[in-house]
């Protein structure tokens, strides 16, 4: 796939570029400024943008803002946002804009190469992928409140994996449950979150958004 990197740390940016190239991906551009990300993406039209949340010029959420701005003109663009710390507000904001083809992971996750590359593939394919630590923090903060408090421990575990972007088959393998059991748990989640009768939207995406309270 064609990727644009946006990261102001030259060492991290160069290392990630080498990793992607070694895996057969094309790094169309590697930039250090949010404005450069917008320009490069519009010029190169990549499949995925990998961007740090905090970038110049203000070192707040410029990378996230730039990636979302680019996606307005490239609706099929995948966005994988990197962060040094768990900042659930940014994860929620990213998903609130549009949840398909987005990911939010901690930079430390890049060191787990296979896991990081799996997340990248899922984002490129249009899935949602959240860092497990982000999901854990969200669950700790909201898991006992209504309507999420209606879920059983196993249902919360399934939703936890759904929020990371895993398919039903992958969740089945991770939890050592049959695929039919996973499907029953997901249907129960939809029922308890009052999503069973919803049409026009992906109930899976709505469940994740309800989970993030966005």
TrEMBL record:
Entry superkingdom: Bacteria
SMART domains cross-referenced by the UniProt entry: HTH_LUXR, REC
Keyword Transcription regulation: yes
Domain Response regulatory as annotated: residue spans: 2-122
List of residues that carry 4-aspartylphosphate: 52
Keyword entries, A-Z: DNA-binding, Phosphoprotein, Transcription, Transcription regulation
Residues annotated as domain HTH luxR-type: 144-209
Keyword tRNA-binding: no
Signal sequence range: none
UniProt-listed PROSITE patterns: HTH_LUXR_2, RESPONSE_REGULATORY
CDD domains, A to Z: LuxR_C_like, REC_NarL-like
Name used for this protein in its record: Response regulator transcription factor
């Amino acid at each position: 796939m064609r990727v644009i990197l946006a990261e102001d740390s030259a060492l991290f940016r160069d290392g990630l570029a080498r990793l992607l190239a070694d895996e057969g991906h094309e790094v169309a551009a590697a930039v250090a400024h949010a404005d450069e990300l917008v320009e490069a993406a519009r010029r190169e039209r990549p499949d995925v943008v990998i961007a740090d949340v905090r970038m110049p010029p203000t070192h707040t959420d410029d990378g996230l803002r730039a990636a979302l701005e680019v996606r307005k003109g490239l609706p099929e663009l995948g966005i994988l946002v990197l962060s040094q710390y768990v900042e659930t507000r940014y994860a929620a904001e990213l998903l609130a804009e549009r949840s398909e083809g987005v990911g939010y992971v901690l930079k430390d996750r890049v060191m787990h190469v296979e896991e990081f590359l799996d997340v990248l593939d899922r984002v490129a394919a249009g899935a949602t992928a959240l860092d497990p630590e982000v999901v854990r923090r969200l669950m700790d903060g909201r898991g006992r409140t209504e309507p999420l408090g209606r879920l059983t421990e196993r249902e919360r575990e399934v939703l936890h994996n759904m929020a990371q972007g895993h398919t039903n088959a992958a969740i089945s393998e991770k939890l050592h449950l049959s695929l039919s059991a996973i499907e029953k748990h997901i249907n129960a989640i939809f029922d308890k979150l009052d999503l069973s009768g919803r049409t026009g939207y992906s109930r899976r995406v709505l469940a994740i958004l309800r989970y993030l309270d966005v």
